[in-house]
UniProtKB/TrEMBL annotation:
Cofactor: heme b
Protein name: ascorbate ferrireductase (transmembrane)
Primary localization: membrane
Membrane topology per record: Multi-pass membrane protein
Transmembrane segments: 7-28, 48-69, 81-101, 113-138, 190-209
Length: 211
């Protein structure tokens, strides 16, 4: 399969994951509203922002730089950095939503494996963006230093994408357990297919940027 075909599959599974996530949050979980006085609606901002805003845009940024935009390198670099910055902003909103929900429900913060992976990933992602901005946008260091740093930047970006996918998968399972879903409920199936779509999005993004 060509790199273009693999990229198309990444887009397909990313969009499918967003659709399934919206079905879950709007149809089964009572909607999305950051300013609501009803905690579950506030919480629902978290999974939406962390996948649609954070993981999906981060994956799109990786593909945009590698092969998605037929234009000069500097333009692709700007698009890459801008999409990652927007992903960070969405991530901040998503994290704010879950902390707000925990305050409303008197739940302890950062207590689960999901939260540890998620917070760690987000912090490292922010450092990766700052490093990339100063090293490649502002051209810090010599040409040789940038060439060596680029390889670590690429490897780090792909690792962070899979860390983010891992956080999403553990988050879906944690929420499923928290709300007490039974294995054969339709909502459980929606969550499972959402998780599969997110995983396949990460797999095909990784494959597309590896060509």
């Amino acid at each position: 399969m060509s790199a273009l075909g693999i990229s198309a599959l990444a887009h397909l599974f990313g969009i499918l994951a967003i659709i399934l996530l919206l079905v879950w949050l709007l149809h089964y979980r009572e909607g999305i509203d950051f300013d609501s006085h009803y905690g579950p609606r506030v919480f629902n901002v978290h999974p939406l922002m962390m996948f649609m805003g954070f993981i999906f845009l981060a994956g799109e940024a990786m593909m945009a730089f590698r092969m998605g935009i037929p234009t000069e390198r500097n333009t692709r670099k700007i698009v890459h950095m801008t999409l990652h910055l927007i992903a960070l902003i969405f991530g901040i909103v998503g994290l704010s939503a879950v902390f707000k929900f925990h305050d409303m429900a008197n739940i302890v913060d950062v207590y689960s494996l999901h939260s540890w992976i998620g917070i760690g990933t987000f912090c490292l992602f922010g450092l990766q963006w700052i490093f990339g901005f100063f090293m490649f946008m502002l051209r810090g260091g010599s040409d040789g230093t940038r060439a060596r740093a680029l390889e670590w930047h690429k490897v780090g970006g792909r690792a962070l994408l899979f860390m983010a996918v891992c956080a999403a998968e553990t988050g879906l399972m944690e929420k499923s357990s928290f709300i007490g879903l039974k294995p054969h409920q339709k909502e459980s199936h929606v969550i499972n297919f959402t998780g599969l779509a997110i995983l396949l999005f990460g797999v095909f993004v990784n494959m597309s940027v590896g060509f």
